Amino acid sequence: MAEVIALIDYGAGNLHSVHNALKVVGEAVGANVSVTADPQVVRAADRIVLPGVGSFKACAEGLLAIDGMVEAMTERVHVGGAPFLGICVGMQLLATRGLEHGSTAGLDWISGEIRLIEPSDPAIKVPHMGWNDVALMPHAKDHAVVEDGEAYFLHSYHFSASNPKDVAAMTDHGEGLVAAVARDNILGVQFHPEKSQAYGLATLTRFLEWKV
After folding, report:
1. What is the pLDDT of residues 60-110, one digit of tens each?
2. Which residues does 112 contact at the CB level (< 8 Å), separation at least 6?
3. Is the pTM for the entire model greater than 0.90?
4. Where in the sequence is the active site (predicted)?
């Protein structure tokens, strides 16, 4: 029976592009993508993907506005062990809190804060936008999903993780910025795999094949 990937619909701006990319790789590995705002679908899913663009505050409020969704995600991921992928702000929502437009609580699945990118060199532009390297951390060299490569980024805030072991990959934009976080069956990527051409599709394929 084909696996079901729950792509959570909470009004995120990159939902459709992520859906299209997941459909392409899903067909290749025999998985079905379900765009859903139904907590019961999430509870029954084999894998969960949380997209996200825009402000941390707006995304957090949008997710919380769906009655029972955070509880369903938590149950399926932390109790059921389903592989989870957060993309861009979907990755940032894994943090303890975001500091965009004040302090807003995150899921607190991976301890840390989402802070404004403040490069010491004024020539470095914010937002961090365009293609950049993804470099795995030494302790994550055997990660089953993220690999060294080049991906597309678009963000003004970055994940400052409390525990360096939760950082799976870094990129550089005037300073080191977190490109991916990972713990157990939870993965978040700051870059946009749906905009990262062959590298992005390969990343999504590995996520769908990931055995935790």
Report:
1. 999 999 999 999 999 999 999 999 999 999 999 999 999 998 999 999 999
2. 95, 96, 159, 160, 161, 162, 163, 166, 181
3. yes
4. 88 (nucleophile), 192, 194
Instruction: Give the CA distances from residue 43 to residues 7, 60, 77, 95, in Å, rounded to whole numbers and listed in that order.
Output: 12, 20, 9, 22
**Using CA atoms, how far apart are residues 88 and 104, in angstroms rounded to an integer?**
17
Residues for the chain: how many in total?
212
User: Tell me, what CATH number does 109's domain have?
Assistant: 3.40.50.880
Express each pLDDT in 2-14 by its tens digit.
899 999 999 887 8
3-state helix, strand, coil in the chain (%, to 5): 30, 30, 35
**First and final CA of the chain: distance in angstroms?**
19
CA distance 44 to 117: 37
Q: Which residues participate in catalysis according to the annotation?
A: 88, 192, 194
Q: How far apart are CA 35 and CA 174, in angstroms?
A: 37
- Provide the token pair at 163: 């525990």
Helix (H, G, I), strand (E, B) or coil at 57: helix
For the chain, the domain total comes to 1
